[in-house]
């Protein structure tokens, strides 16, 4: 089933929902309406995996500067909070979210990718937080997630310089998980696994409770999965 909502396209294929940012003439820059449509597309997925991509030669240029140019102080703060909510929705989705990055990821595009569970780049992908060059910075959770993913030193380097890095540099930094000609294949790879286990692994990895409570939850979920898959485990042992 295919559908169009604002600047977001949805294509449901078996165990993967493909969500495409679809404003290639604007390098898939995001307006408030597009942010809402993106949140709905990711949060509403029944599939175990969501594959997030950009149409055309860019992944996402971030916030649409035509929108930003018309903001005052209060509406700018609200727009930042809007983007943060959408990035949070990507991070908190029950589905495993794979960002397939081909071409430019800039500003909010990087921040959306940071909220995904896996970031998979093509060799042509490039990354930058160029807001500093306009007297701005990444405010869709960028100052929170970027240091968490790449470390404080590398995060400050990217955010303070606004420099552009290529896919191999991003891989060395830990900004992306893999570099491949076909990021979609990684989404299919994940989707071949048990959906409940995918959800359980993501929930446990994202759990921010105290360590002893996380470990207790980990044990409980492991026990439930062993019980559920007892026959498959027995078959594997005997093979």
Automatic annotation (TrEMBL):
Entry-linked InterPro entries: ClpP/crotonase-like_dom_sf, Enoyl-CoA_hyd/isom_CS, Enoyl-CoA_hydra/iso
MF-aspect GO terms: catalytic activity
Pfam families: ECH_1
Entry similarity comment: Belongs to the enoyl-CoA hydratase/isomerase family.
Name recorded for this polypeptide: Enoyl-CoA hydratase/isomerase family protein
Organism field: Halorussus limi
UniProt lineage: Archaea, Methanobacteriati, Methanobacteriota, Stenosarchaea group, Halobacteria
